[in-house]
């Protein structure tokens, strides 16, 4: 059981840059996601842009 974290560590290090790469894309698509939600909260958030 103790060897499992050491096995997953390289995978986590490999996926970390991918996560940082997808983060700006997620923030870029966030307004479009709120566009499809007809709620006052999403409209107020869209008003900030």
Q: Could you characterize the architecture of this molecule?
A:
The chain is an all-alpha fold and 49 residues long. The protein has a domain of 33 residues. Helices cover 80% and strands 0% of the residues. It contains two helices and no strands. The longest helix is centred in the middle third of the chain and has 32 residues. The N and C termini lie far apart (49 Å). The model has no long low-confidence stretch (mean pLDDT 71).
Provide keyphrases for this structure.
49 residues, mainly alpha, 2 helices, 80% helix, elongated
Helix content: over 70%
Q: Based on DSSP secondary structure assignment, what is the total number of beta strands?
A: 0
Note poorly predicted spans. Answer: none
Into which percentage range does the β-strand content fall? under 5%
Radius of gyration: 18 Å
Q: Could you say which overall geometry the principal axes of the C-alpha atoms support?
A: elongated
Biggest sheet statistics: none
Order of helices and strands: HH
What class would the helix/strand composition place it in? mainly alpha
Mean pLDDT: 71
State the helix count. 2
Distance N to C terminus? 49 Å
The gist of it:
The chain contains two helices and no strands.
Which SSEs are present, and which pair or pack?
Blueprint (H helix, E strand, L loop, with lengths): L3 H32 L4 H7 L3
């Amino acid at each position: 059981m103790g060897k499992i974290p050491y096995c997953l560590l390289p995978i986590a290090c490999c996926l970390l840059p991918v996560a940082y790469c997808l983060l700006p894309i997620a923030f870029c698509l966030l307004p479009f996601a709120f566009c499809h939600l007809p709620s006052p909260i999403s409209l107020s958030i869209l008003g900030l842009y």
